[in-house]
Predict the 3D structure of the following.
Amino acid sequence: MRLCVIGVLSWACVAAATGAQVVEHIVVFKQPNRFAGWPANNGIWSWGDEIVVGFTLGWHDNHSRGGHPIDRTRPSGPRQARSLDGGRSWSIELPSYADESGKERAEADCPGGIDFTHPDFAMRLRNGRFYFSYDRCQTWQGPFRLPTFGRKGLLARTDYIVHDKHDLSAFLAAEKDDGAEGWPLCARTRDGGDTWNLVGWIGPQPDDACYAIMPSTVQMKNGALLSMIRRRGVFEEGRRWWIEPYLSPDEGRTWYLLDQPYIPNHGNPAHMIRLRDGRIALTYGWRDEPYGIRAIVSSDEGVTWSDEILLRDDGNSWDLGYPRTVQRADGNIVTVYYFNDRHGKERYIAATVWHPGPHQR
């Protein structure tokens, strides 16, 4: 049974309950006066111990009025970090689809025929565009246009499931009727990216001032789809932010709200992966005190979840999280996120290597 804990926890207590173990925290990218953030807006891909994660790089500005202390008057743009040793060390790269100022190539229509099963394949989805690579993110093709499915625009982040050579489902978010964010959906291409069809909306369209965005999805062993949605709602006591799960038994056409897990993490997307031992791991940022990064694990296809695993709680402010997670060759898990600690103003990219503990059968 999942236990959602609010307040100060000692890691030893959590570890005793779950058997989880934090191995180490690693700085992926940190530079004076820079703002590095939002891996969840970009994506993560891995091939054994080779890991690539995307992030946004800008300049720090404590006087910014946009909520995040990033200087909106100076260029910011995409970067990617690559590790060849399971997250122990990292090099920083400029993605081939952008220049130093962050300007991207002009978008085009995709001719189709993408081989989603290529062993070195990666796909990136961002807003109304997608990109793909056949060489482990060394070079990218695209951006290519995505249809808007009758909406004013898309708010896509990278979330997809490969079904076959030219068959892929993408889990996106679209603008609502009023043009505000957002309403998640499942779309599918069966011709390698040439045409896309709307399969189904994930839940009802949110009310005014509410949103449902940033799905993270895994396929169940019985073929069903489980997706975690980032939510904001307005209630009598004020606004509330949380993560909630939806299940689709029919390849994304219809979706049903589940009651677990409900994670009141005050505004941060989750990332869900299938572990090699069959369990599901879910990681997310925690934007209430103590600020940090947390996880839960399910051994029964998302029916029940472990006690909360406290990966770290030393954040200096709410401005952190947006994690992306992979499992490396030795079975340890690598969770990458942006962070702000008590040792400087900079937002930087960090990684936590951890183990979920033994599989309780």
About this structure: Residues 131 and 191 are 16 Å apart (CA to CA). The first helix runs from residue 11 to 18. The radius of gyration is 19 Å.
